[in-house]
Amino acid sequence: MKILVTVAEVAEVEDDFEVDGLAVDDRYLTYDLNEWDDYAVEAAVQIQEAGEDVEVVSVTVGPERADETIRMALAKGVDRAIRVWDDDLAGTEYLDSATKAEILAAVAEEEDPDLVLTGVQSGDSAFGATGVSLAERIGFEWAAVVNDLDYAAGDDEASVRRELEGGVEELTDVETPAVLTIQTGINDPRYASLRGIRQAQSKEIAPKKLADLGLDADVTEGAVSLTELYEPETVSDATVYEGSPEETAGQLADLLRDKGVVEG
Amino acid sequence: MTVLGIAEHRRGDLRDVSFELASVGRELADATDSELHLAVIGGEVEAFADDLDREGVDVIHTIDEGEEFNHDIYVQAVEALHDDLSPDVLLMPHSVNGLDYAPAVASRLSLPLVTDAIGVERDDGLAVTREMYGSKVETVVDVDADRVALTVRPGEWPPVEGTGDADVSAFAVDIDESQVRSTVTGFEEVGGGDVDITDADVLVSVGRGIEEEENLALVEALADTLGATLSSSRPIVDNGWLPKNRQVGQSGKVVTPDVYIAIGISGAVQHVAGMKGAETIVAINDDPSAPIYDLADYGIVDDLFDVVPALIEEFGGEPPEI
Ligand SMILES: Cc1cc2nc3c(=O)[nH]c(=O)nc-3n(C[C@H](O)[C@H](O)[C@H](O)COP(=O)(O)OP(=O)(O)OC[C@H]3O[C@@H](n4cnc5c(N)ncnc54)[C@H](O)[C@@H]3O)c2cc1C
To answer: Which among A23, A75, A156, B69 counts the fewest CB atoms within 10 Å?
Structure first.
């Protein structure tokens, strides 16, 4: 059987940054594997390790730079990777979740997986919509915000827990093939071993263009466009203590004494 | 024109976000002189309709299918109602269940979808405000379409109040059972155990800024010194460093202590959902632009590994070697 895992490279913004037009200036961005996807990769690799003959394939929509992140996933046990990018995508100002789902759906049609795992959301844009949009497009069943998974390769049902608000979990049986969006904490993502990192160098990252997937540039033309991006005005009216750690700690200590947290 | 909002309920109660969603819905409806319709699917729909009948709500559709949330039923029900009403805006909550059906609905109806809205503006088109990069940046996205689907961040709008005189009507849907491919088999409360952080007057709360499990000793020592209870943001629990019953936030506990000291916590929206009701909020974080400072009453913008030991010493305690 085959598990497809969507893997995104996400940008993190440094503490101090500047906005340049409709983006955060590139100088203040660092890139990393999306936190939620790390757990999705681990979930896939664990199913692989528990069963026989499971292939884990990752798919990424992103520029060549993302190969570095993809190698991390390969080092953790993904067998091979697909990365979709071309000039049309590079020229698209705003890749909304519908566009991403459309592209991932085309890859899923080609790969014909039995199970798709995605992260609940990506840390940068936090749309939280790609996995479920993808499921609907490819006619798979799905479950969102999964923090526990009971599934063995070949099963025609997955038992999951969905983490609802306020410490309540929903127990759900989901028919497969399915798309599951994975929540952090579901497992303990492994570190890439040195051996894994070495092996990852020889694993395939297949570059694909929209045309290779039978798509044209139309998929990038959504109704949603970005018109503003700014640092929110600080509504903070916090009293910020100034000085050395000893001085600021002293001021905070006074506050805590005033509040009666500590006596004396 | 019509704005349609889908209410949310769980285990017999409407969730707050239903009333907040009605508030956004009214705002959008007013801008275009439209009607605000709400729909409630499953459970005690009549009783829910009574409760939803508040000021500014024009019509409530009850769809009596299922007891609890099941996304396969919700998708079919919303699709059928949408076909019938053709609303120009479809509103759903950006809750865990919203995440589980809104994208499928939008996809099935070929509607552009914008999620996690924290602001809306309507004149010719629709402009939606949302955050990026863990609340460090705000964006506005324009939706250029006659019909759109939107999910609304819980806790951002005031709930609609008062009593209304909405028309309540039952809407019948032919559920295709072959398309119901998931079954909810139960619910479970998690995170009982040794302490109840919701009881604490003072919480020392630790986040990913602590870096390593060994370093937790530092905040534990502070909590001991202050006679406070130790709580945390999610990554600490995800890493298995503290049990689930210590997690503050949307999926953890909602706490309302007198004093909440957030140490190395950025203030992500799902964390804030659990602690914004604290009376006094103190943040220790080396990033002055961390969203926690929007909420904090007092702050120290510095390295927690310098500040926390100094604070322990202030009270005559001995910071552990880490
Ligand atoms: C469906 C869903 C539900 C969720 N539920 C919850 C929930 O219930 N509770 C929850 O907390 N999260 C929840 N999250 C996760 C949430 O989105 C964030 O990922 C999480 O809150 C971040 O935790 P943090 O603030 O500890 O870490 P980070 O966001 O990584 O922040 C760490 C902070 O520490 C600061 N820092 C680093 N080093 C130092 C230092 N040496 N000194 C001082 N400061 C330092 C950094 O500047 C940063 O601001 C949920 C997410 C989803 C999608």
So the answer is: A156
> What distance in Å separates the CA atoms of residue B98 and residue B92, rounded to the nearest whole number?
6
Strands (E), chain B: 2-6, 9-10, 13-14, 35-41, 59-63, 89-93, 113-117, 119-122, 126-132, 137-143, 148-152, 167-170, 182-189, 202-206, 229-232, 259-263, 280-284, 298-300
Range in A68-77, B96-105, B182-191, B260-269 the model is least confident about: B182-191
| B86-129: pLDDT as tens digits | 999 999 999 999 999 999 999 999 999 999 999 999 988 899 99
B26-70: pLDDT as tens digits: 999 999 999 999 999 999 999 999 999 999 999 999 999 999 999
- Looking from the CA of residue B267, the nearest atom of ligand 1 is 25
Query: How far from A118 is each of A35, A61, A133, CA to CA, in Å?
Result: 11, 13, 11
Q: Do B104 and A132 touch (CB under 8 A)?
A: yes
Q: What pTM was estimated for this model as a whole?
A: 0.96
Across the range A135-157, mean pLDDT stands at 97
Nearest CA-CA distance, residue A202 and chain B, Å: 31
- From CA B269, how far away is CA B276, in angstroms rounded? 10
CA neighbor of A192 nearest in space, from A21, A41, A20: A41
Q: What angle do helix axes A245-258 and B304-314 make, rounded to 10 degrees?
A: 50
Contact: B138, A165; criterion CB under 8 Å: no
Q: Is B129 in the pocket of ligand 1 (CB under 6 A)?
A: no
The answer to whether B146 contacts chain A (CB < 8 Å) is no
Ligand 1 site, residue B207, Cβ cutoff 6 A = yes
Q: Is the pLDDT of residue B271 over 80?
A: yes
Substitution site in A184, A236, A240, A252 for ligand 1 pocket (most atoms within 8 Å of beta carbon): A184
- The residues with which B143 forms a beta bridge, in sequence order, are A224, B126
Q: What distance in angstroms lies between residue A259's CA and the mean position of ligand 1's atoms?
A: 27
Question: So what's the pLDDT on residue A6?
Answer: 98
Per the CB < 8 A criterion, the answer to whether B193 and B279 are in contact is: no
**pLDDT number for residue A51:** 84
CA–CA dist B220, B197 (Å, integer): 14
Ligand 1 atom index nearest CA of B249: 8
Find the mean pLDDT for residues B140-150. Answer: 96
Token output for A56: 């884990």
Residue labelled with tokens 């100034």: A242
Atom of ligand 1 minimally distant from the CA of B211? 38
Q: Output the pLDDT for position A264.
A: 58
Q: Residue B193 pLDDT more than 90?
A: no
Q: What percent of chain B has pLDDT over 90?
A: 95
Amino acid type, B232: S
* A191 part of contact set with chain B, CB < 8 Å: no
Please choose from B266, B272, B301, B308 the residue to mutate so as to test ligand 1's pocket, defined by most ligand atoms within 8 A of CB: B266
Looking at chain A from residue 99 to 118, which residues have their Cβ under 8 Å from any Cβ of chain B?
A: 101
CB contact under 8 A, B183 and A173: yes
Average pLDDT over residues B129-139: 95
